[in-house]
């Protein structure tokens, strides 16, 4: 019984709430006196605890003299408690990430991000902070599903350009009102020394292979580069204007020499051409 009570309190119930609910599940239904005798919860407290559990849908009350308390199905109660814990955990992580982003932006113009969760949260923060426009470089459209909602949401409020250096292969989902571009060859130096060597394949450095996945650029002021090092995904966020502005100008140059494409026929994707 003690282990069960600890598990229920870990899910958000108080000890008395856990004892009252567990006893009711054990006996099927009962009056305040019966619950008190089986749980050890003081009888005067059983009444208000039972009313509180009833208000959350965890028990029902059959009014009478005395009242009889009937527990809801454990699976329903546990699902509700687990959902509340998950929601609280998500809100806490987002709040802490926001504090971390704010602190980092004040203290350092460049910082590293590790872990898929943190990468997604930083990308969401970048997109939600856009005030003018957002540019995205995606090396393989088949991988963009994880950021599709983020891009679509941003495109409802601001211009969004998505550059696809490897073409439109794998396009299946809409990206809202974002404009999609496939770059064409341009300046020989950039084509051979930057585009083909950096954007289109792995870069070997000291025995490791670095592969570019995405570049997000918000308003020329924040640049987030998502990459893989020996298959492990990381990211770097840069607010240094010398770097973010240069990255954006390079992306703008590729867009200016790109073909604007539509989505696949009949999918209703809303991938419409627009002027570069």
From TrEMBL:
InterPro entries on file: TrmB-like, Tscrpt_reg_TrmB_N, WH-like_DNA-bd_sf, WH_DNA-bd_sf
All residue ranges annotated as the Transcription regulator TrmB N-terminal domain in the record: 8-74
A Pfam family annotated for this UniProt entry: TrmB
PANTHER family: HTH-TYPE TRANSCRIPTIONAL REGULATOR TRMBL2 (PTHR34293)
Annotated protein name in UniProt: TrmB family transcriptional regulator
